[in-house]
Amino acid sequence: MNCDAEKVIYMDNNATTRVAPEVVDVMMPFLTECYGNPSSMHNFGGQVGGAVEKARAQVAELIGADPTEITFTSCGTESDSTAIISALQAFPEKRHVVTTRVEHPAVKHLCENLDRLTGHKHRVTRLQVDSDGTLDLAKYEEALTEDTAIVSVMWANNETGVIFPVEKMAAMAKERGILFHTDAVQAVGKIPITLSELDVDFLSISGHKLHAPKGVGVLYVKRGTPFVPFLSGGHQENGRRGGTENVASIVGLGRACALAQEMMGEENTRVRVLRDRLEEGLLKSIPKSMLNGHKTDRLPNTTNVSFEFVEGEAILLHMNRYNICASSGSACTSGSLEPSHVLRAMGVPFTAAHGSIRFSLSVYNVEEEVDFVLKKMPPIIAELRELSPFWKED
C-alpha cells in the first residue's frame, strides 16, 4: 500500500486526523519492548500501568477533570453508549431521554434502538434546531420532566461545527436531578473545557479526532455520578470497563491531549484564519453557494458549504482528482445517498442539502493548500452544473 500523504490536501479532520509524530514516538515502546500487562503485579507490568496512569492524568488536565474521573474506552461510540445505557440502568424508574435531531449516529442510532434494547420501556424527545443549527433553550427546558433519566447533547456538531450551550443545558438538567451527557468528540482539543466548573456528568472523547490513533476513547464520569458498567469482565479501569487496556493507544492519546493543550491557541487563531479564508473565497467565487451553520458559534476549524444543483458525491469525486480530501455529511454515514439528517433538521433546501461539502482543517494545514482548493473548486462546480438539468444561471 502506498499512502503518499505528501500529495494529499487533507481537509477532512472531523472524520479523522493524522496521528501526530510526537504521538507515534511515545507509542512505539509499548508496541515493542514494553509489552507487559498493566494489571500485573510484577515491575515489568507495573511500569506499563504507570504509563497508563500518566496518560489518564494528561487527558484529565486537558478537560479540567480529576484523573479518577477518566475511563479509557475503545472509541467515542462506546463512550456514548456506555453513558446513556448506564443512566437508564441506574434509574430504572425513569424512562425518558432528551437529545437532539442533529446528533452523531453514535447517539442517534442508539436512541432509535432504545425500544429494542430496553424492552419497549423508553421514549425519546429529539429537540429541533433552527436554520443556523442552534437550539432553543426554552424548548429544551420544556422537554425536561420528572421522568427524564438523561440528556445527551453533543458539544459541537460534527458536520457544521455549531457549538451548543452545554454549560447552561447541563446546569438546567442538574437543577432537576437529571444526568447530563455530552458527546464532545469534536470539541475536545479545539475549544477550552473545564469540567470541574460544570454540571456535566458524562463526556465522550475519541482519540482519532485529536491526532491520536483510532481505536481509543474516553468516558469522563463525574465523581459521585451513578454508574453501571457497559462492559463487564475484569477489574480494569477501576471496575468501570472490563478488558485489558489498549496501552499503546492510551499512551498516544495522553500525549495527543498534552499537544492539544499546547496548540489550542493556534487552533483558534491561525487555523480559524485559514478556515475563514477558505469559506469566504468559496462563497465569493461560486454563485448559489451558502454557509450551513451559525456564522460565529462554531468550531474554529469547520466550514460546511452547500453548492446548489449539484451532488456532494460528484463534487468529492472531482476533488479527488486533485487529491483534495473533504466530506459530504458525516463520515459515519458516507455510504448513504440520503441528504444529511443535520441539514434536513436545519431546513436547508433539498437542492442545496445534496450538494453540501464539509471542510475541516487542522494545525497541519497551510495557506498554500487553501489557495489551491480555492483555485480548483469553482471550475469543479461549474463543470458539474453544466451537466445538471436543474441548473440555470441567472
Sequence-ordered SSE layout with sheet pairings:
Blueprint: E1 9-10, H1 21-27, H2 43-63, E2 70-73, H3 76-90, E3 96-100, H4 105-112, H5 114-117, E4 123-127, H6 137-143, E5 148-152, H7 166-175, E6 179-183, E7 202-206, E8 217-221, H8 247-285, E9 289-291, E10 302-307, H9 312-320, E11 324-325, H10 341-345, H11 350-353, E12 356-360, H12 367-386
Parallel strand pairs: 1-11, 3-4, 3-5, 5-6, 6-7
Antiparallel strand pairs: 2-8, 7-8, 9-10, 10-12
Quick recap of the structure?
It contains twelve helices and twelve strands. The chain is α/β, with parallel strands linked by helices and 394 residues long. The strands form three sheets. A seven-stranded mixed β-sheet has the order 2-8-7-6-5-3-4, sandwiched between helices. Strands 9-10-12 form a three-stranded antiparallel β-sheet. Strands 1-11 form a two-stranded parallel ribbon.
Oligomer: single chain
CATH superfamily of the largest domain: Type I PLP-dependent aspartate aminotransferase-like (Major domain)
Number of strands: 12
Low-confidence region ranges: none
Order of helices and strands: EHHEHEHHEHEHEEEHEEHEHHEH
**What is the annotated CATH architecture of the largest domain?**
3-Layer(aba) Sandwich
How would you describe the shape? Answer: globular
Plain-language structure description:
By secondary structure, this protein is of the alpha/beta class. The protein has 2 domains: 5-17 and 263-378, Aspartate Aminotransferase, domain 1; 21-259, Aspartate Aminotransferase, domain 2. 38% of the residues lie in helices and 13% in strands. The protein is built from 12 helices and 12 strands. It has helices spanning 21-27, 43-63, 76-90, 105-112, 114-117, 137-143, 166-175, 247-285, 312-320, 341-345, 350-353, 367-386, and strands spanning 9-10, 70-73, 96-100, 123-127, 148-152, 179-183, 202-206, 217-221, 289-291, 302-307, 324-325, 356-360. The strands form 3 sheets. Strands 2-8-7-6-5-3-4 form a 7-stranded mixed beta sheet, with helices on both faces. The longest helix is centred in the C-terminal third of the chain and has 39 residues, at 247-285. It is globular. It starts with 8 loop residues before the first strand and ends in an 8-residue tail after the last helix. 47% of the residues are buried.
